[in-house]
Design brief:
Helix content of chain B: 55-70%
Helix content of chain A: 55-70%
Structural class of chain B: mainly alpha
Order of helices and strands of chain A: HHEHHHHHHHHEHHEEHHH
Distance between the termini of chain A: 70 Å
Oligomer: heterotrimer
Largest interface: A-B, 19 and 18 residues
Structural class of chain A: mainly alpha
Chains: A mainly alpha (365), B mainly alpha (490), C alpha+beta (153)
Strand order of the largest sheet of chain A: 1-2
Shape of chain A: globular
Radius of gyration of chain A: 24 Å
Number of strands of chain B: 0
Strand content of chain A: under 5%
Number of helices of chain B: 27
Order of helices and strands of chain B: HHHHHHHHHHHHHHHHHHHHHHHHHHH
Radius of gyration of chain B: 41 Å
Largest sheet of chain B: none
Chain lengths: 365, 490, 153
């Protein structure tokens, strides 16, 4: 070990930074960070998995940007070019598509685990709100990104998806034109969606992600009631650094490898180029994370009382989603002292609802 | 006594004479009267005694109406008696069809003539209004004339086979006249016809050879592009075959009768009759319409070459042209037949038994042709085989999920090369042939490369995945132990 | 805490081995990650369409004492028609720093605007920085059409 001034290289470099940015305090704080160790600890990994997948999306997305061309004439061809001619293009593209889906899934799992463990309660309300916004943004990523290859399925899925905005009263039609860049889905829509996907949404996502992570770091890991109620001797913790981190790393390695396996054995398809004048192909459907809403809307009758069926459906979803969003608010009303089953029942209902209708969406054609 | 006998004989004789005279003068008063008149009133009467209707005892009133029994022209030509005078050109045909379209009437006169002439004529091209709107272009009288109509079997009839050509030509050979209708119809049919075998025999008085009506029909003449026409593309073969497949008729001229049968089964016959391709040649396309002659030995390639241009050009520059002409071999026909042209297959070239090359060439020491034929076949077979092999590789790649659409597109070129090479065979020159077929091999090797690369990539992906999975497995195990160690320590 | 020296040695060895395994493993993993990324960034070669000859028009389409740049496959080629009506063709890429040359009627020469390089009408570099002549292309006239082709080396 080379020493100069009696300090090692590692010690000297650390000192250089510490002098300027006073990181010792931060490190002390970080050392204290721990994760409750109990049966539900496994759910604590999903936030990190979602984060990992987001980073993978950003990196693979940047790589795709090197070759993707976002115009009506060239979008499909450029994606085909990437998938067939560029070295490892097939890998980057399939990873990007699979990771997108896995990210949304991870966020859903993360959200439901937080919900059932009731970690959204005081003082973590803002963490819940920013998290929910992140979910919405992620689904926006999915919706906008789906169109970018400009293939048949994407074109029609976008058409159907954006049509729904018509049902929103007052602002519906203007919102439709804003989304589509016109009355119909055209090259203008593609340009807009491309802009949303690579500029607007990443910017917004980053802002809320930073807030979300900052809140978590400041407040530490949530300790659910069940764990807090344990006697002191049985309360076990895992120090965040390095134990939990190493565990996370292990899981992340596995997740990355799973992505590679999916890319090789289940490559993402491209299909045919979008043709606005061709009839809608058989089997168009939205991505799975929109499927349950889509299926419910399909099953609603054309008219309910004096309102259109679609409007009732969308209004119901809107209200439901809003209520879910503000759960920290109405959970406050329920007494904490008693075990609050209401939240749990609502949660179970929502999960089952989503699962059942998603499955129905796929098997009923 | 003798004086009284003389008087009785004289009386008897004069009575008999009057009777005879009376008998000589017709029961047709119209005729009798008109025979005394001049110029245009005389002509019909003068001609009518030669008319077949006169011989059937039909009076002038039979067509013109009126009363033929009286010479009082107040009665005989009165409207009350149905006299119509000279009928207007636009409707004069109605006079003819009054009898000729009525089976009962025809039977009454002891005729077994058909009664469908008008039915056939009225939809035909000749029955359309003439350019000066004076009735149809041609009606009964236009061709059969009037007042001196002869039976169609009478050599003096205007429509007798040896005279009908002149009749049709009287309009159809006049450019000035035809211009009133269409400048696009030719006016050289008669001239050409006279050069043909049909025309030459017809001029010599043979009523059995084909003339205008034999092919075009007599009453039911349609435009040649009308599918109802007897000489529409798909109808012509049967028209020619009507005579040319009749062995009894053809034996008089020493002609074969297998042409139609051979042609029907040929590529051209199938194309025209079964696939409705009216650009496919039948009898008239190779032999000519009006100037029909079988093409001579040196001109056969020009006949075939009128469609198969490239083959003709290549053949004429090839060594076979001189060789064939010197030996009186009929160019294209030698290998391809004239009527029974079958679908060409690659088996026709080469040194195997089925090859036409072997009809002349053989495995002799200085027979260069034998060598060239063999080589050509070898190259074609080789290209086809490689094409098939390459298609298999691409199929394999596609089934493995790799995209080879660009390569598949390139491969289509090979089909084009094969088509071109088969044409180049007609140069009978190995160097030129090699030049045309080599691009095919180049394309194949490029496509094969791409196909194999695609399949290799499929395996490479799995290999890469395997390697990275192994690395990750090691890492995961290592991390697991590190974590365990860490936890044990604390 | 006294440690059994033998145990600690074994533990140390195990620790080293584990450390090596992890370190080496991570290194390998990073490579397996970066290799595809770098290959991805390397653009694929676009197939060069093998062009052997290009028809550029009728003989009288080009005025005498003029020149123009044509596309020969994916290469620029300069075609000139001299005062006497003869055609000539050369590579249109300057041998100095790859700018595209042009015909200058006022010089009666082929000129490169980037650094004032000049070539005569036989493609020889006569003035300025170009170190080598322009590659000659063949020109032939077939049935009143001017055809430029690449001469075999």
């Amino acid at each position: 070990m080379k020493k100069s001034n009696g300090k090692t290289f590692k010690e000297r470099s650390f000192g250089w930074i510490d002098e300027r940015y006073d990181v010792t305090g931060l490190i002390e704080f970080a050392k204290k960070k721990s994760v409750p160790k109990f049966r539900e600890t496994i759910w604590y990994y999903f936030g990190g998995i979602a984060l990992l997948l987001f980073v993978i999306q950003v990196l693979s997305g940047i790589l795709l940007l090197m070759y993707y061309q976002g115009t009506e004439d060239a979008a499909y061809e450029s994606v085909k070019f990437i998938s067939t001619k560029v070295s490892f293009g097939w890998l980057i593209r399939s990873v990007h598509s699979w990771s997108a889906n896995l990210m949304v899934l991870a966020i859903f799992i993360h959200m439901f685990s937080v919900y059932f463990l009731k970690s959204f309660r005081k003082p973590r309300e803002l963490t819940w709100y920013t998290g929910f916004i992140l979910l919405a943004l992620a689904m926006g990523f999915g919706f906008s990104g789906y169109l970018l290859p400009w293939n048949e399925l994407a074109f029609f899925a976008t058409k159907v998806g954006t049509d729904i905005t018509r049902q929103i009263p007052v602002i519906g039609d203007s919102l439709l034109i804003l989304l589509r860049g016109g009355e119909d889905v055209t090259g203008a829509t593609l340009s807009r969606f491309f802009g949303f996907h690579v500029a607007v949404l990443p910017g917004l996502f980053t802002v809320f992600l930073v807030l979300h992570l900052m809140f978590i770091q400041r407040q530490g890991m949530a300790e659910p009631e069940d764990w807090r109620k344990l006697p002191e001797s049985e309360k076990k913790q895992i120090p965040f650094f390095p134990n939990f981190t190493l565990r996370e790393l292990l899981i992340w390695l596995i997740v990355i490898n799973i992505l590679a396996i999916l890319a090789v054995f289940f490559p993402w398809e491209l299909g045919n180029k979008a043709d606005p004048f061709a009839p809608a192909p058989v089997g168009i459907r939205p991505e799975w994370y929109f499927m349950f809403m889509f299926q419910v809307l399909k099953l609603l009758p054309a008219n309910i009382l004096f309102l259109s069926g679609e409007f009732v459906g969308i209004a119901a979803f809107g209200i439901g989603i809003f209520l879910w969003f503000i759960v920290p608010f109405w959970d406050k009303r329920t007494p904490e002292s008693r075990r609050n089953k209401a939240i749990t029942y609502v949660g179970i209902f929502v999960v089952m609802f989503i699962i059942i209708f998603t499955i129905l969406g796929f098997i009923l054609d | 006594m003798l004086k009284i006998l003389n008087k009785i004989v004289l009386l008897f004789l004069s009575a008999a004479f009057s009777l005879v005279v009376f008998a000589q003068s017709s029961a047709d008063e119209c005729l009798n009267c008109h025979q005394e008149l001049d110029d245009e009133l005389l002509m019909p009467a003068k001609n009518y005694v030669n008319d077949i209707h006169y011989k059937k005892n039909i009076t002038c009133a039979g067509c013109h109406g009126g009363d033929a029994t009286t010479d009082d022209d107040e009665i005989s030509m009165s409207k009350e008696k149905g006299f119509i005078g000279v009928p207007d050109k636009t409707i004069r045909y109605e006079v003819c069809i009054n009898c000729h379209s009525d089976e009962q009437t025809m039977k009454r006169y002891g005729s077994n003539l058909q009664v469908d002439q008008y039915k056939k004529l009225k939809n035909s091209v000749h029955f359309q209004p003439s350019y000066n709107n004076q009735g149809p272009i041609a009606d009964c009288i236009t061709c059969h004339s009037v007042h001196n109509i002869k039976s169609v079997n009478d050599p003096l009839s205007r429509v007798y086979p040896t005279k009908v050509v002149e009749l049709c030509g009287s309009c159809h050979s006049s450019a000035k006249f035809m211009k009133n209708y269409t400048s696009s119809l030719p006016v050289d049919q008669v001239i050409k016809y006279k050069t043909s075998k049909h025309g030459m025999l017809n001029s010599k008085g043979d009523p059995n050879v084909a003339e205008c009506a034999s092919c075009h029909g007599n009453h039911d003449i349609y435009s040649i592009n009308d599918t109802r026409s007897n000489v529409y593309a798909t109808n012509i073969p049967k028209v020619c075959a009507k005579c040319h497949s009749d062995s009894k008729l053809m034996s008089k001229y020493g002609l074969p009768t297998d042409q139609y049968e051979s042609w029907v089964s040929s590529v051209h016959g199938v194309a025209l009759l079964e696939k409705d391709d009216i650009s496919a040649p039948s009898c008239n396309d190779c032999h000519g319409n009006h100037g029909a002659v079988p093409p001579g030995v040196e001109s056969i390639s020009k006949v075939c070459g009128s469609c198969h241009v490239l083959n003709m050009e290549l053949f004429e520059k090839s060594p076979h042209k001189k060789a064939f002409d010197e030996n009186d071999f009929p160019e294209c026909e030698t290998c391809h037949n004239n009527h029974k042209i079958r679908y060409v297959t690659d088996d026709m070239v080469g040194t195997q038994e089925s090859a036409v090359c072997m009809d002349c060439h053989s495995n002799e020491k200085d027979d260069k042709g034998y060598f060239v034929a063999g080589r050509m076949k070898l190259l074609i077979d080789s290209l086809k085989y490689e094409d098939k092999e390459t298609k298999e590789i691409l199929k394999d790649a596609t089934q493995k999920g790799m995209d080879v659409s660009d390569a598949e597109f390139l491969l289509k070129d090979v089909r084009q090369v094969l088509i071109q090479s088969r044409t180049t065979i007609h140069t009978f020159n190995l160097d030129i042939f090699k030049e045309s077929i080599n691009p095919g091999f180049e394309t194949i090797s490029k496509v094969k490369e791409e196909g194999i690369a695609a399949v290799d990539d499929y395996y490479f992906r799995r290999l890469g995945l395997g390697i990275s999975t192994i690395i990750v497995t090691f890492l995961v195990i290592g991390l697991y132990f590190k974590i365990r160690k860490l936890e044990k320590k604390s | 805490m006294t440690e059994d020296p033998k145990n600690s040695n074994i533990n140390n060895n195990r620790r080293d081995f584990l450390g090596m395994l992890l370190g080496g493993g991570f290194f390998a993993w990073i490579i397996s990650l970066f290799y595809p990324v770098f290959k991805f960034l390397d653009p694929p070669k676009i197939e060069e369409v093998k062009v052997s000859s290009v028809k550029i028009g009728a003989v009288e389409d080009m005025a005498k004492d003029s020149g123009k740049i044509i596309k020969f496959g994916n290469k620029p080629v300069i075609v000139i028609r001299k005062l006497d009506g003869e055609y000539a063709a050369f590579s249109g890429v300057c041998t100095h720093l790859d700018c595209i040359v042009q015909f200058r009627q006022d010089y009666g020469q082929i000129y490169c605007a980037c650094h004032n390089g000049k070539y005569d009408l036989n493609g020889r570099n006569v003035s300025g920085p170009p170190p080598a002549p322009l590659k000659k292309f063949g020109v032939t006239i077939k049935k009143d059409e001017v055809i430029v082709y690449e001469e075999e080396a």
